[in-house]
Write a structure and sequence with these properties.
Layout: H1 4-11, H2 18-28, E1 37-41, H3 48-58, E2 64-68, H4 76-89, H5 103-114, E3 117-122, H6 131-138, E4 146-152, H7 157-160, E5 169-173, H8 179-188, H9 194-204, H10 208-220, H11 227-241, H12 253-261, H13 267-274, H14 280-287, E6 292-294, E7 300-302, H15 306-317, H16 319-339, H17 346-353, H18 362-369, E8 377-380, H19 386-397, H20 414-420, E9 425-430, E10 433-442, H21 446-454, H22 459-463, E11 471-479, H23 485-499, E12 504-509, H24 515-521, E13 524-525, E14 540-545, H25 556-572, H26 581-591, H27 597-616, H28 620-634, H29 640-647, H30 651-670
Parallel strand pairs: 1-4, 1-5, 2-3, 3-4, 11-12
Antiparallel strand pairs: 6-7, 8-9, 9-10, 10-11, 12-14, 13-14
Helix pairs in contact: 9-10, 11-15, 12-15, 13-16, 15-16, 18-23, 25-30, 27-28, 27-30, 28-29, 28-30
Protein name: Phosphate regulon transcriptional regulatory protein PhoB
InterPro entries: AAA_16 (IPR041664), Acyl_CoA_acyltransferase (IPR016181), P-loop_NTPase (IPR027417)
Pfam families: AAA_16 (PF13191)
Length: 675
């Protein structure tokens, strides 16, 4: 006879966490000298309980005992009673507790007979009243055949500080689910509409419990979604459920709300925003909570999801106080920005200081400040990528909120763009899988101008935009899964922080929803470039010019001459670029990057090699330039006279080709591509 518990287990939906499950499987295989505790930790709603239960379900051939307490265990007797209750439910034949046998001995007996036993302790970091007893007495009596997995809101730091336990604890943080995982979760609930899926992500921030609540709510409404009304009610539900006082572990809710107003915070900042002294103990409790993580660039950051719900909760409960706190946050950020000497442009300063985060705009928060730990490897596109990139773009374009196809079929021009210069199409991979791409076109290149004039979506933009140096069009962007925040944020941050200085950037947007965010960042619309459509998506063009904001930025002619000299110097030392450190750092200042010397050397060499490969596959004249580059600089077989003789070129012809080659290399170096 099937029990209700069995029915619920069959119907529970679990997606993702493949890395964590792999670590747990590895831990399960360890015994004896490799014994230890694998502990997953994260805020309320991050799916810790579901992960423990899913792992036990996946390894059903091994007996498991799952123990959770609410409230936390107050004494050892409560803990042992809970374990005995779970042990009694195990279908292990005669292996129940025997009279006179301690609980630990009984567990050891079960583990020995079945070749192992899993002990799942849910909430271990919160069991402070019995923590010492567990660590120093009870766990020491267990056999190493018993594998311990635990979960809690905090890492087991206090255990790791003890010499005897330091090497036995492995803390694994749990963050939000990536988009690919919650797309599968939504699909399991019958939700496949791309627009609805995008809204689920923005509201839930990838937090598993929030995703579950959203999907259940949509199903209860018959699958229909009313964006504004439903979003407000869901945010209110998250505030009540996930940020319930029982889940705050004593953290001052007002401090959490204030910390959520800004991207990063510290003690002085929160005191200024609040307008009064904050006790050190309360501030430390906030920073040590599961809601907060250390920011690599300084200070602390409230976790994604939690931050938004806390902020929205404050705004709804106390709109006047919210406005006042936000004003004070802006004041202290302004003061700190003014005090910090920086060569960054205005947009970079607003991003780095966090002032831009103060805008109440989901897109800015999601794409500029969202970071899910995604690490994508970038490279120029290959010819065999093009069909996959076309397909990726077609799926991506209809995922925008307007949910309209691109009837101009921009994907058809990808091959033409690649044929002109493969390096302008930047492809990104996630563990060998194509995860996204974008194409940024230099607008002073006549080969791309011809393509833009031929393309109906960009023809008006090309007509109103004369060719100038340091001018770029970010033409297409797409990801798999569509509208992936981690990928889009990586591209946008790189564009604004690294590519923008000394350049003008235009973004071609297929969605009016993103135009507000663009304006807040500082982009201005180019209305005469607008490309309307009656039966598909329209394209908007937004432009940000930072050419005049870079100190000492030369005029185009001077810039061209300067880069010609730089190219000559770097080409002459192609095999020993590290000897040209002053010139490399001059390039770095112009590019606005923060590379080490070895990274600068690698970037310059890769850029020159990419140009050589491009020329090798070009016209007959370009192929001659490629051979000059190879013999005169990359292999350096001798003087220019020796190379000219080797190639059978008259001196005048050789130097004409050489001059054009240096100009091509200078252009490639000048237009920093970030790959």
């Amino acid at each position: 006879m099937k029990k209700v518990h069995d029915l619920l287990s069959e119907r529970r939906c679990f997606v993702g966490r493949k890395d964590e499950l792999a670590l747990m499987a590895d831990h399960l295989s360890r015994k004896n000298e490799s014994w230890g505790i694998l502990h997953v930790h994260g805020p309320a709603g991050m799916g810790k309980t579901a992960l423990l239960q899913q792992f036990a379900l996946m390894n059903g051939s091994i007996p498991s005992i799952y123990v959770k307490a609410n409230p936390a265990f107050a004494d050892p007797e409560q803990f042992e009673q809970a374990v005995r209750r779970r042990l009694a439910q195990l279908a292990v034949g005669e292996d129940g507790p025997s009279a006179g046998m301690s609980l630990a001995d009984t567990l050891n007996h079960v583990a020995g007979k079945h070749g192992g036993l899993m002990l799942l302790l849910d909430g271990l970091s919160e069991w402070t009243d019995i923590g010492y007893w567990l660590r120093e007495e009870w766990l020491l009596t267990l056999s190493t055949d018993i594998l311990v997995f635990s979960a809690g809101r905090q890492p087991l730091i206090s255990w790791q500080t003890l010499d005897s336990w330091a090497h036995l604890i492995r803390n694994i943080p749990l963050g939000p689910l990536p988009k690919a995982d919650w797309i599968r979760y939504a699909a399991a609930h019958g939700i496949t509409d791309l627009k609805t899926i995008d809204l689920i992500g923005r509201v839930s921030e990838g937090v598993p419990l929030a995703i579950n609540l959203v999907c259940q709510d949509i199903r209860s409404r018959g699958g229909k979604w009313r964006p504004e009304t439903d979003k407000r009610s869901l945010l209110d539900m998250f505030d009540r459920v996930i940020l319930h006082p029982d889940n705050l572990s004593g953290v001052n809710r007002l401090l959490l709300d204030l910390a959520s107003l800004v991207y990063t915070f510290d003690h002085e900042m929160l005191e200024y925003i609040l307008g009064e002294t904050i006790p050190t103990a309360e501030f430390q409790l906030l920073c040590q909570s599961s809601f907060v993580r250390v920011n690599p660039e300084g200070g602390w950051t409230v976790s994604n999801g939690i931050r938004r719900w806390a902020k929205e909760g404050l705004k709804r409960r106390s709109p006047e106080a919210y406005a006042q706190y936000k004003l004070r946050a802006e004041q202290i950020l302004e003061r700190r920005t003014a005090a910090a000497a920086s060569s960054a442009n205005e947009v970079q300063q607003e991003m780095r200081s966090g002032k831009m985060f103060l805008h109440d705009n989901d897109i800015i928060h999601g794409y500029i400040y969202y970071d899910d730990g995604l690490h994508l490897a970038g490279r120029p596109a290959r010819r065999e990528d093009i069909p996959l990139l076309r397909e990726m773009y077609l799926k991506h374009i209809v995922a925008y909120p307007e949910n309209l196809p691109d009837t101009s079929h921009q994907e058809q021009y990808l091959t033409d763009v690649w044929n002109v210069d493969p390096s302008v199409i930047h492809v990104f991979e996630d563990e060998g899988r194509l995860a996204g791409f974008y194409a940024a076109l230099p607008l002073d290149d006549p080969r791309f101008r011809e393509l833009l004039d031929r393309n109906p979506a960009t023809r008006a933009f090309s007509a109103c935009t004369p060719p100038e140096p340091c001018d770029w069009l970010y033409w297409l962007i797409a990801s798999d899964p569509p509208l992936d925040q981690g990928f889009a944020g990586q591209v946008l941050r790189d564009m604004l922080q690294n590519k923008l200085p000394g350049n003008r950037i235009t973004m071609m947007m297929p969605s009016v929803e993103f135009t507000e965010a663009a304006k807040l960042v500082g982009f201005r619309e180019v209305p005469e470039a607008f490309c309307p459509s009656d039966d598909g998506c329209s394209f908007y063009f937004f432009q940000l010019d930072a050419r005049q904001r870079t100190a000492g930025n030369p005029d185009p002619k001077e810039a061209s001459e300067m880069w010609m000299e730089i190219a000559k110097t770097l080409l002459a030392s192609f095999k020993q670029l590290e000897l040209r450190e002053p010139v490399l750092h001059q390039c770095q200042r112009i590019w606005g990057t923060h590379y080490s010397l070895s990274q600068l050397v690698r970037y310059v060499q890769n850029t020159i090699i990419s140009e050589w490969r491009r020329l090798e596959h070009g016209s007959p004249k370009e192929r001659k330039m490629a051979r000059i580059l190879y013999y005169a600089y990359m292999q350096k077989i001798g003087t220019h006279e020796v190379v000219a003789e080797r190639l059978g070129l008259p001196s005048s012809t050789y130097y004409r080709y050489l001059s054009k080659l240096i100009r091509e290399i200078a252009r490639a170096l000048q237009y920093y591509r970030g790959v």
